[in-house]
Amino acid sequence: MRTTVFTIANQKGGVGKTTTAVNLGAALAEKKISTLLIDLDPQANATSAVGVEKQTGKSLYGPLRGEGTALEMITATPYEHLALIPSEEDLAAAEIELAQTENYLARLRTVLEPVRAKGAYRAIIIDCPPALGMLSMNSLAAADFLLIALQCEYLALEGLGQILRNVDRLKAAHINDQLELGGVVMTMFDLRTNLSRQVVDEVKQHLPDKIFQTVIPRTVRLSEAPSFGQTIFAYDPLNPGATAYRNLAKEVIERFRLKELK
Q: What is the pLDDT of residue 156?
């Protein structure tokens, strides 16, 4: 089975990045697409959002240091077809330690090679910290496609150019020649405001082929679900947020041909 690696990154916090990683992963799993969610954020929000307890020594911190393998860290979730590599606070130390290692930007790619080679997952989704530090840059170096979660506010637009420049730098340095911008997911869309529509229109103007048609609405239930250790599909399956993430999954499946397993 060919594995496609997506990283969901944005240096700005609070833009719906983890919500998108978790619920997109769960929506793909609903479609029987075997998916591995990797929590690369030391805050471990994606880990708790799928109802998995944080465990010391159960993250990519060890493998990034050359201790253990990523395959050993894979953990089951309550959701069929969705597995997880959890995070833990110790992962924060990797931000400093990675800079002192050889090929420091390629460490994650090396660590994930056995997972890709095993071919057990059609999609791997990496949730990054809200900063363009060592962990996020490693995720970009390990990914096939970058998915950007972008809040429907003008300040969020300022960071879009920054992360795209980092993609260009990685490619120019031949650290990841294959990396492409897979798409922009517009999050926290508020139908009641003109601002949300204006921001979406501006992104469409600049990146017409990359923006997903599905916009993720701002809903209270979508914000509440992680605190109960549940995806939106388990917490409130009829919520507009659940509908939106199912529609986004359909777009992702079609755009990246995830049904084609060979």
A: 76
